[in-house]
Amino acid sequence: MVEEAIKQSQQVLFEIDPKDETFSAKLREAAKLPSGQLVTSKIHPKTYEYLRKITLSGMNDWHHLRPWAIAMILRNPTLGNPDYRWGVDSYIAERARYYGKLTGGLETVDEHIHVFSDMFDAEGEVVLLQAISA
Fold first, then answer.
1. Which of 6, 47, 53, 74 lies at a 20 to 30 A Cα distance from 17?
2. Separation CA 29–CA 42 (nearest Å)
3. CA dihedral of 7, 13, 16, 20, whole degrees rounded to 10
4. Is 129 helix (H, G, I), strand (E, B) or coil?
5. Is the pLDDT of residue 58 over 60?
6. CA distance 80 to 125
7. Mean pLDDT of 72-98
8. How far apart are CA 74 and CA 101, in angstroms?
9. What is the residue-averaged pLDDT of the chain?
């Protein structure tokens, strides 16, 4: 069914252009707190304590990340070392290229990342709390 939809399409659009290979590096950079800052200064102590209790690593690898980035990792642990070649988007993009279809993105990589990186600290903590409670 997916294959047929690709064949019948003139263009296949994704959130971001699958040909843009800068996403992972830019997301990793945006996820980091400025040098010298730790997540403990960005979230309520009770949030941090609960997070520390539910994580196996005790947050040792995450102290330098923004709250929304920790939430992303909690929701999808493979984000720490993603291999997008095996994802659904990669498969569809590859098939679209095979059939000679145009591919593109609805937004740029920077626009997509700014949805998260432009959050206020409180908004990032809300995203984190949602990931913890899910």
1. 74
2. 17
3. 50
4. helix
5. no
6. 19
7. 78
8. 35
9. 89
32: nearest Cα among 60, 64, 76: 64
Q: Which two tokens stand for residue 42?
A: 């960005």
Q: Look at residue 82 and tell me whether its pLDDT is greater than 60.
A: no
- Write down the residue that tokens 């990032």 correspond to: 124
Tell me which amino acid residue 7 is: K
**Residue whose token pair is 């993105």:** 105
What's the sign of the alpha-carbon dihedral 16, 29, 21, 92? Answer: negative
- Of 114, 118, 35, 31, nearest to 67 (Cα)? 31
Q: Which of 27, 11, 3, 8 is nearest to 84 (CA)?
A: 27
99-113: pLDDT as tens digits: 999 999 999 999 999
What DSSP state is assigned to residue 59?
A: T
